[in-house]
Amino acid sequence: MSPDSMPLGSLRSAAEVNEQIRALWLRAGGSLSAQERAEYELLVVEWAAAIRGKIIKAA
Hints:
By secondary structure, the protein is mainly alpha-helical. It has helices at residues 14-28, 34-58. It contains 2 helices and no strands.
């Protein structure tokens, strides 16, 4: 799913998603497997949606 097709906002805050991204990198030891890379990509899209939702609310 592309970031443009994601609904605005996120169920979790950007900070929550960011913590999950950091935890993933720590568990992976700095080198992601294919499965971890896919998880990372989904988390980044979710984080971006959370940031976008926050910006839209502020406007």
